[in-house]
Amino acid sequence: MQQYSLRLLLALFVLGSFTACSDLLQADNPNNLLEEDLQDPRSVLPMVNGVQASLTRAFANIVAPYATASDELTWIGSRDAWQQLQFGNFNNPNNEFTDAAFFFVGEARWWSDDVIKRIEAFEAQGLLLSGDEVQLARAYLYGAVIYTVIADMFDDFVISSDKSEAAPPVGPENMASLYDQAIEYLNKGAAIDGISDDLDAAFSGMMARVHYSKALWAKLKPMDLGNPLINNPDAIKFAQEALDKMGADYKFVLDTDPTTPDVVGTLDIGQQVNQRLEMRLSDDYIIPDAEKKRVANLSDGDASTSISLLDPIDNIADPVLYDAVLSFSTQAQFVDFTMVSAREMYLILAEAALAQEDDAGFATQINALRALDSKLSAYAGQVDAMTLLKHARRVNLFLQGRRIADHYRFEESATDWQANSDAVLNPGTFFPITITEIRANPFIN
Fold first, then answer.
1. What is the distance between the alpha carbons of residues 131 and 300, in angstroms, rounded to a whole number?
2. Which CATH number belongs to the domain containing residue 106 in this structure?
3. 0.85 exceeded by the pTM?
C-alpha cells in the first residue's frame, strides 16, 4: 500500500526547522512562541505543522460523535450523551461531546486560515524562504480538509477572521459555501511548483472529494430521495486525474504518534473506543468478544471470527473491513486518519457510472476497487449494483466521517436511531453550533 502520511513531531508548533536559527528560539520553552514571533518568515514550517496538528486533533475528536451517531459505533460506557448520539439525537447543542469537539474544529479552521494569510503575506512581500512554497501548499491542503469536514458534519458554523471577535453564523442555507472555500484553497495549492507527486495526488483526490461532497450536500438540503446517486462532472474529472497520479492503494493519511499525545486531544475516537471503552465497534460490522467490549479474535488472522459484515458477492467476512478494524483496534489511542484515498476515487467513478446506467463502466471501477483485495471476486452481475455500491462505501470509508450522509440518502436508518429522534424526524440533520459558542457569541440567539 502506498500511503502519503504526515507524521506529527510535536503538538501545536513543531520547531525542528529552527534548530540552526538564532534569537527566535532563544527561550526556555521554544514551543511557547509569542505573537510577534509568528511575523518572522522562519516560522512558516512550525506554523504549518501546527495546522496539521490542529486538523488531526479536530478530526480525531469530531469523528467520535459522528461515528457514534451512525451505525459504526455502539455506546457501552457510562456517559449518556454518547447514547443520545447513538439514538439519533445529535442536533442538541448541549451535547457535551459535540461541544467538546467544537472547540478543536473551530481552532483548526481558524488556525488554517490565519497561517495561510500569514504565509501569503510573506510571499507577497518577497520574504518567503526558499522551499517554503511547499509549506504553503500543505497549509492550503489542510485548510481545504477542515472546511470540508465542517461542511460534511455540521448544519451551521461560525467563521470568524479574528480570534477575539465574534461573527454571525454562516447559516444552514449557506454551508455549501465552505466547500467553495475548500476548492479555492485546493486550486491555489495545486498550482504551486515543486510539490511532491504524493502531495499533488492528495490535491487532486481532495478536489474530487470536495466536488462530490458538495453535490451530495445538495441532495440532502433538501432531501432528494428519488435520486440518491452522485454524478458530478467535476468529481468525475478530478477522480480520474487523481487515479492517474496515485499508486494502486494510495491514502492521504494524518498519522498520530504516542510521542505527541496532545495532538489527539482528550475525547478522540481512539481513546474513547480502544482505551476508555465508552463505545465499541458496532455489531453491524464486528463480532464482539465475550464481554462485549472489544472485537473478538482479532489476533487469529481469521476475519470470519471477528467480522460480522459479509461481502455481498463472496459471502465471506469482508476482508476490507477486517483490515480497517485490525488497524484501528491495534493502534489504540493513536490511530491513523484517512482523509482521501484511491479507493474513494474508484467509488466516486463507480457511482457516477451507475447513475448514468453504464453497467460496464460500473463494473470496471468497482472491480478495480475489489482487485485491491485478493480475497474478493470480480463483479459480473451476481448482485444488485446498488447493493454492492452501498456495501463498498461502508467498508472502504469506514470511520472516515461519511456514513451519516449515506444513511440519509439511501433511506437506511442506523440500527439504534429512535423513532422520535432528530435523524428520523428530520433526515438531513447533522451537528449544530454548540452551546459554548452560543453562550459566547452575541450574534446567536
1. 47
2. 1.25.40.390
3. yes
